[in-house]
Amino acid sequence: MLNYKEIKEQNDKLELVLLKDREDWGTKLKPLIDMIKDITRVSEAQVIMLSYRHQLTDKISEFQNRLYKKGASFDYHFKESFLYYSSEYNLKLSGGEKEKFIKSDLRELKRQEYMLESHIEFYYGCIKTLDQMAWAIKNKIHVTTEQL
């Protein structure tokens, strides 16, 4: 069976790591906004933006692989718990009761999946922000060239 205390500690650590990663990406993206305001720094901003976009795409792939592994782990433990509650548990449980017991037992594993899904969505949001910055640059260049 699962060591729930250990998994809860892992979740707490994972939550801190993900929070730090979000803060890091926030501090990376904020200076770009100032850079695109200055027409002389636009090309530098574009290079950095493309680099960040590539890094985020790699991170999404990495986290999707982790999420897949967590899902497989959850399915395995769900099956093990189902067998336990079907054959070894002291009380006879109905199907719905077994499922509730199992979901309660595996809630910390499911929480890991939710945290990873949320972080993947955060990465997609960062990419969307970078794409919007690219459109802002395009519009800024277009307006600047029209004025000349």
**What is Rg?**
23 Å
The helix tally amounts to 4
> What are the low-pLDDT stretches, counting only 5+ consecutive residues below 50?
none
Helix/strand/pairing category:
mainly alpha
Order of helices and strands: HHHH
Strand fraction equals under 5%
What portion of residues is helical?
over 70%
**CA-CA gap between termini:** 71 Å
Task: Walk me through what this model shows.
The protein has 148 residues and is mainly α. Helices cover 89% and strands 0% of the residues. 9% of the residues are buried.
Kindly list the characteristics that best describe this protein.
148 residues, mainly alpha, 4 helices, rod-shaped
Topology readout:
Elements lengths: L3 H34 L4 H46 L7 H11 L1 H41 L1
Helix pairs in contact: 1-2, 1-4, 2-3, 2-4
Provide a short characterization of the protein structure.
This protein is 89% helix and 0% strand. It is mainly α.
